[in-house]
Design goal:
The complex is a heterodimer of chains A (about 425) and B (about 325). Chain A has about 425 residues and is α/β, with parallel strands linked by helices. Helices cover about 40% and strands about 20% of the residues of chain A. Chain A is globular, with a radius of gyration of 22 Å. The chains are: A alpha/beta (about 425), B alpha/beta (about 325). At the A-B interface, β3, α3, α5 and β9 of A face β1, β2, α3 and α5 of B.
């Protein structure tokens, strides 16, 4: 059914249709509307046979999820930013134990300085946690990915993060097609756990493993992600037959076949990039876009196949690996190993900084002219940075950096672009 | 086993043999049908109070739950000595997740059971969570308080040996004042652990007004079984805090485990009581009051108090704390005073 609704609510409806059995909720912006929506659905009886638990921290949210998933219950939670860092130990534990929990990450920056707006540093901080990480481009895809995520998680017994841009998607009202219960039931069978805490068949879960088997257990986690790499396109095909839409998959290519310049990105910024690409195509530039939907497992072969005939690759990412540059670009470069390509990393949109079409036009044109540096911070205000560097060079007690730089900017919340 | 009427040779003793009791009054451990939930072959030290406490507590819980029990376990000695895979001592469904999240994991298990039971996919299965004092009073405290506050249907059992014994005897918030640990060495002007405000989690559990809170020691195993059984007859959040001497961490003889647990109770250092909905409803009285020295002197962790110049003032402070417990919890019968 077509609906004009908020991204968070669309996700809540999708999760509700997946017949969750335990939902853990802890508030953190910008995911709150999702669990609020689910809380209401469970309390009103719209979603039945489900325990909705208000916990005392994100660490508890993931820990409750571990307990319920290990007891064979389909389990969901949502978080963002500091929340994912606070639950980090349990995030690794959930994947290490092979528990198919599904969690929405409403992508948000990580402090300090504290910032509630969107970028991808929260989810990418957990890229090695063993979770499958799927990134949504639109609200429709965010809705669809949750249905796919439960199926994927339960097939390979691994937890899945569905990442959607905080505010940009979670708080945007858009038209979405909400599937019927019959459609979801046809796609997603009841959860059959590989392991469960069951008094009729007692097992010990979470034992200590020494050097004699630790590598093998860890390799199995990798092997399962490689299984997921095979499974994700198949599930996307199955999804299409039931729901009639393309959703999920490993990557999405847009005008890459003859492209000399290919921009690689994840999440909602792909829409803006495609608009810029359309305009540049009209001006005769051979430019295309590669969207990565599955960040973990990372589809090395698909990325390589999409990029191998290009001359240059611009990875535009909402994340920063401090001390080297890009996070996604490192993986893209691994996919490009041996290819003679110009590679550029563009760090953009940190902490909610708007990525404008104007800036992207200028950026891509610079890349095509061969003038783009290997690492660029899009729209960086050099005056503010240099002023602070100068202050630190000349004054020992230069004070708190973020506060000084804000003072230099001089306005608060008046300019996000 | 034939039945003989009880004839108490020592009035009020706990050492009466099972053969003198009616079958219904015999201990869970005395029953050949006991589940051996924590089975033999595990790797606890000789004289480990925690292994003994866990064995009695979990078997009593299993008995009360008619064999339908799931346990969540914090990281710590109990976890490490019971599951050096591929071996496991647990005869019941058991999960170890992390050090600080056991109460929350148990909440998740209880929630899953509730849903599965409602759907008819599972019977009435009960949940226990267990951890040491570090996993309970320190790192797991947030999750524990959350579980209490929501009144989740979990029995949490803390095995308190007064420190992080698994990592090499470091101080926890349950380490008693003046005690030596690897991080509170007996050096300097105030040797051993500091005299703080104390963090007695049973009292904090009572402040949550959960249905049932109890303390116990491994010296009174029938009392422990009684409290676990009683706790299992109640729904909601329940907490049992068991004092379990640690020969390694306390610097005590392995054969003194029971004796030290008894002395902790008989001196008033460890009050043994039970409470319902935030109010004390019963105490285990001191039978023969002992000075704290009787307890302290048997442990090397207090050796610095009894050198050439005994730390008279420190010992007096410890005695005062024990006396305060005696007053506060009414541990002495009026006539015994």
């Amino acid at each position: 059914m077509l609906k004009q609704t908020e991204g968070s609510h669309a996700v809540a409806e999708a999760v509700g249709l997946c017949r969750p059995e335990v939902i853990c909720a802890y508030p953190i912006s910008p995911q709150t509307h999702i669990v609020e929506g689910l809380g209401e659905m469970v309390k009103s009886g719209e979603v039945t046979d489900c325990e909705f638990i208000n916990v005392e921290s994100e660490f508890a949210a993931m820990s409750v999820a571990i307990g319920s998933s290990a007891t064979g219950a389909r389990t969901y939670t949502a978080t963002a930013s500091q929340g994912i860092l606070f639950m980090c130990e349990a995030v690794y534990n959930a994947s290490g134990l092979g528990l198919p929990i599904v969690m929405t990450v409403a992508n948000r920056a990580i402090g300090a300085p504290i910032n509630i707006w969107n970028d991808h540093t929260d989810a990418l901080s957990q890229r090695d946690s063993g979770w499958i990480q799927l990134f949504a481009e639109t609200n429709q895809e965010a809705l669809d990915l949750h249905i796919l995520a439960f199926k994927l998680a339960e097939e390979v017994s691994l937890p899945v993060m569905v990442c959607m841009d905080g505010f940009i998607l979670t708080h945007a009202y858009e038209r979405v097609d909400v599937p019927t219960q019959e459609q979801v039931d046809a796609f997603l069978p009841p959860y059959e756990p590989r392991q469960a805490l069951d008094p009729t068949d007692p097992v010990s879960i979470g034992a200590m493993v020494g050097p004699e088997a630790f590598s093998e257990v860890r390799y199995l986690a990798h092997a399962k992600q490689m299984q997921a790499l095979e499974l994700i396109p198949k599930l996307a095909a199955q999804f299409k037959t039931i729901f009639g839409r393309d959703s999920g998959g490993l990557t999405h290519s847009y005008l890459t076949d003859d492209a000399e310049t290919i921009v690689v990105a994840m999440g909602s910024i792909l829409g803006t990039i495609k608009d810029v690409v359309d305009e540049m195509r009209q001006a005769g530039e051979k430019i295309g876009v590669l969207g990565i939907s599955s960040y973990r497992p990372f589809p090395l072969d698909n990325v390589r196949a999409a990029l191998q005939n290009a001359k240059r690759v611009v990875v535009l990412e909402k994340s920063l690996a401090v001390g080297i540059g890009g996070v996604v670009s490192t993986d893209v470069r691994m996919a490009m190993s041996g290819l003679q390509l110009e590679g550029h990393t563009v760090v953009a949109g940190l902490g909610g900084r708007a990525i404008t079409m104007k800036s992207l036009h200028a950026l891509f044109a610079k890349a095509i002219r061969g003038e783009l540096e290997r690492l660029t911070f899009l729209d960086l205000d050099w005056d503010v940075v240099n002023k602070q560097l100068e202050r630190e060079r000349t004054t020992r007690r230069s004070g708190p950096a973020a506060e000084s730089m804000l003072r230099d900017v001089g306005v608060v919340a008046a300019r996000i672009g | 086993m034939s039945f003989q009427p009880v004839h108490f040779y020592q009035t009020g003793t706990f050492t009466v043999g099972n053969r003198l009791l009616e079958p219904s009054e015999r201990s869970v451990q005395a029953n050949i049908q006991r589940t051996n939930s924590l089975n033999s072959g595990h790797r606890a030290c000789q004289g480990c109070g925690e292994a003994l406490g866990a064995r009695y507590a979990i078997d009593a819980a299993m008995n009360a739950a008619r064999g339908r029990l799931i346990a969540a376990n914090a990281t710590g000695c109990l976890e490490v000595f019971s599951t050096p895979y591929p071996e496991t001592s647990w005869q019941i469904p058991w999960i170890h997740s992390l050090f600080g999240n056991t109460a929350a994991v148990a909440t998740g298990i209880a929630a899953a059971i509730k849903v599965k039971k409602h759907k008819g996919e599972m019977g009435d299965v009960r949940v226990v969570a267990q951890g040491g004092d570090g996993g309970t009073t320190d790192i797991g405290f947030g999750c524990l308080s959350g579980m209490f506050e929501r009144n989740d249907d979990v029995l949490y059992i803390c095995y308190d040996n007064g420190g992080y014994m698994n990592t090499g005897v470091q101080r926890s918030s349950a380490t008693p004042p003046a005690a030596r640990t690897a991080t509170t060495m007996p050096v300097g002007p105030e040797p051993g652990n500091q005299f703080g405000q104390g963090k007695f989690v049973p009292a904090i559990a009572m402040a949550h007004e959960i249905p049932y809170v109890a303390t116990a020691t491994v010296a009174d195993l029938r009392d422990l079984e009684y409290k676990v059984t009683k706790a299992m007859g109640i729904r909601g959040a329940r907490y049992i805090h068991i004092l379990v001497p640690c020969p390694l961490g306390w610097g005590a003889a392995s054969e003194d485990t029971i004796l030290l647990a008894r002395l902790a109770k008989e001196t008033g250092i460890f009050p043994v009581f039970e409470a319902e909905n935030g109010e004390v409803t019963g105490t285990l009285k001191i039978r023969r009051k002992q000075p704290v020295e009787a307890y302290l002197q048997r442990q090397k962790r207090y050796a610095h108090l009894f050198g050439k110049k005994p730390a008279v003032e420190t010992i007096a402070r410890l005695q005062a704390a024990a006396d305060k417990n005696i007053r506060k919890y009414g541990l002495l019968d009026q006539e015994a005073n």
